[in-house]
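Same chain as my last thread, 477 residues:
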Amino acid sequence: MKRLFLILALIFSLVAPLTARPASIQTNPPARMTAAAPVRTSAPTPASDIASKVLANGLEIIVLEDHSVPVVTIELAVRNGSFTEPPELNGLSHLYEHMFFKANRAIANQEDYLQKIGQLGIAYNGETREEVVEYYFTTTSPNLHAAMNFMRDAVRYPLFKEDEFERERQVVIGEIDRNESEPGYYLNKEMNDRLFSKYTSRKQPLGNRQTVSTATTAMMKLIQGRYYVPNNSALVITGDVQTADVYKMAQDLFGDWPRREKDPFAEFPLVDHPPLQKSEANVIKQPVTNVLIEIGWQGPSIGKDDAATYAADTFSFIMQQPDSRFQRNLVDTGLVNGVAIGYYTQRNVGPINVVFQTTPEKAKAALKAVYSEISHFNDKDYYTDDQLESAKGLLEADDLYSREKFDEYAKTLGFWWSSTGVDYFRGYLGNLRRTSRGDISRYLTTYIQGKPHVGLALISEQSQQQAKITPEDLIGQ
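reply #2:
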């Protein structure tokens, strides 16, 4: 699930670089920072209250009402991102996202755009991931129609002006520069490149420097015609709205948006990532003070093994609890400073990762201990029935709590819509409650225990001289 990357980012933040520059390591960096969200104070809303409707042109409308404060978030989610990108297109989903809030038929240039939405008190942002690109406005309820108008003009009538395009292309190249200056970037890239070695571009939403540098506005129009169509998009509206009013407004503003004749994923199907044939390892030398080690497996795909995705989330959550055997045997003993395990929900093969931080003198012992824990994951006494049931309850509470920030929750809904579909999301908590020990056991034996994996260490040259980590250590041999 998405939560894994918040855990990883927290652990990565512990790995300070040796230089004076502060670390800013993100596993899947969003294109821009997200604006602060209003806090919701009413009782949580059950998943059954998430309404949805598909217009005749294929545009899905998803609404979650909350009337505690007069604030509304409008998101456009598009099934685009790096999973649609062969090498020659890698980074164009991200670059397109940067062009979204620019000149269109209603607004002459970016400066006018910013001035007009500022006058209306609209906060805006966008984000590119592997399997979704999201755009969102947050404003007060009276400005709902105006914000929907802005969204309509931005998605349907962009101008792709050459001066704005050149400026944003340099901005994206600057993002690539900043990421490449951070040690954690190399760990994440190496893991993805090894887990998904045949189609590496499909797991790199930030993009490729060469592709971005040579991109043209004609390429933006190609992306628009292929993916920015109603039957590949969803409008997600959360907050102080009436569902019937939203449906009518969406029909009025987007109902005549022409449907793409052919489903883009039928015309340009997703690739099949081949399974790992053997375990691989590498020591990545970067200027960091501690040692960060990551072990990765290819996990389940939505639509192919949904049951394993629920088991993956449940098991990971058990392992994250401070009283779990996993945490007690690794953190409480002092072998590691922090450890996380998780699965990232994806339609096109989600990775499973164990990430931990340690010191050079403890690195070998820590690796041995982590692999020992992994070998015992399927033992009957590795976790208790109470821990299993508690994890399900905590996961449900965590989901309900996340709805208190409705602009953030709009992004969550957009993510799930794109990667899994609304029905998967609606049934998520119910399927979590039904997850059994047998389901978890099948998940562990199918995807983790005894399966080929990738082991990586992020370490400085000086620390490696002390630690002497070998490839065999990193794959548990």
